[in-house]
Structures are given as structure tokens and as C-alpha cells.
Amino acid sequence: MNIDNMSEDNKFLNDYWSLYKELLFDEKNDNLILKLRDSIKHTYKNKGRLIFFGNGASASLCSHAATDFTKQAKIPSLAFNDHNLITAFSNDYGYDQWVCKAIEYYSMQNDMVIFISVSGESLNLINGIKYANNEGLKTASLTGSKINNTLKSCSDTFLWVNSHAYNIVESIHTVWITLIIDLLIGKAVYNISD
């Protein structure tokens, strides 16, 4: 075993964990987390649903979020990740417009649309949030990268990770989503059949 590789690995791991500590704990903003939670509660009280959009790994988180908000927090939620819908809408309206069309066809008056994106600059999501805002729907975003990214700037409510590291931003988004679900439930440990 090469000792130099071990010390390089240990340094990498220490730096990596330090970055998580800084972003998750030292820079945390509980007020923004509570603001998003309260906006979600308000949506539910007004009989609205949560509608999630993202690309790539963020699309996977959207599916996870929609499932757990529905099943665990009892807030009806949707995620549009079906390949048939995406490809049909993209083919007919253009990839940059498919999110707008999904919002147009599936959203209802009191729904809240939540966009998840590391960069905050995906054109299909930007067009979607602008459409949702024009329709008077509540909007939220979870982003990373630049502090003034477009999705964050267009959102009624936002959570932002001060990092350009895709895996780290995506992981912190997951922590925040599941934290908000647990906040709504009121506990971190519960029986899944509750």
C-alpha cells in the first residue's frame, strides 16, 4: 500500500467532509427552509398540489420528493419525468418548452411549482418558471452555482447551495427536501405506515 496515496486520500476526504460541514451547517439558513415549508403548507391548505421539475439527477430527486411529500407528508405531489411525455412535448413544442406545456396542461390554480437544478440556468426550467409566474402559480427553486442564477432570481421562495460541485449540491438538495418533509410530519423517526 502506498503511504502517499493514503495521505492524499485522507486529505481529499477531510476537505470533502469540511465542505459539507460548511455548506450544510456553517452556512445554513433555517429561516429560508422554514419559509419554503410554510409556503408548502399554505399550498396544501388551499387544496393545491406540489409539482416538481428537474433535469438529470435533479429529475430523480423530483420523483423522490413527489413520492415522499405525497406518501409521508400527505401533500399531493407530482413529478414529470415520464419519457413519453417529455419526448412527445419536446418533439411537438421544443425541448425548451416542454416544461411550460406540462404546467399548462396539468397545473391547477392553487398549485406550487418547484424547480430543482444545480446550475439554475436550464432553459426548459427557466421557461417553465416564467410561465408559472405569469399564470399566478407559486414557485420555488433549489439551486446551486451562481448566487444570482436565473431560477433563484425568478422564484417566490428559494434554497441555494453556495457550490459548483454537482454531487454536493444534489446531495444537499436531497437533505433539504427530506428535512422539510420531516418538519411537516413533526418528527424524523416514524413508521412508514403512519
Contiguous uncertain segments of 5+ residues: none
What is the overall silhouette? globular
- Strand content bin: 5-15%
For the record, give the distance between the C-alpha atoms at the N and C termini, rounded to a whole number: 50 Å
Give the SSE layout.
Blueprint: H1 3-26, H2 30-45, E1 50-54, H3 57-71, E2 77-79, H4 83-93, H5 98-106, E3 112-117, H6 123-134, E4 138-143, H7 150-154, E5 157-160, H8 166-185
Parallel strand pairs: 1-2, 1-3, 3-4, 4-5
Helix pairs in contact: 2-8, 3-8, 4-5, 5-6
Keywords:
single chain; 194 residues; Rossmann fold; 5 strands
How would you summarize what this structure contains?
The chain starts with a helix and ends in a 9-residue tail after the last helix. It is built from 8 helices and 5 strands; from the N terminus they run ααβαβααβαβαβα. It is an alpha/beta fold.
Can you put this structure into words, describing what you see?
By secondary structure, the protein is α/β, with parallel strands linked by helices. The protein has one domain: Rossmann fold, CATH 3.40.50. It is 58% helix and 12% strand. It has helices at residues 3-26, 30-45, 57-71, 83-93, 98-106, 123-134, 150-154, 166-185, and strands at residues 50-54, 77-79, 112-117, 138-143, 157-160. The chain has a five-stranded parallel β-sheet with strand order 2-1-3-4-5, with helices on both faces. β3 (112-117), α6 (123-134) and β4 form a beta-alpha-beta unit. α2 (30-45) packs across α8 (166-185) and α3 runs parallel beside α8 (166-185). The longest helix is centred in the first third of the chain and has 24 residues, at 3-26. The mean pLDDT is 95.
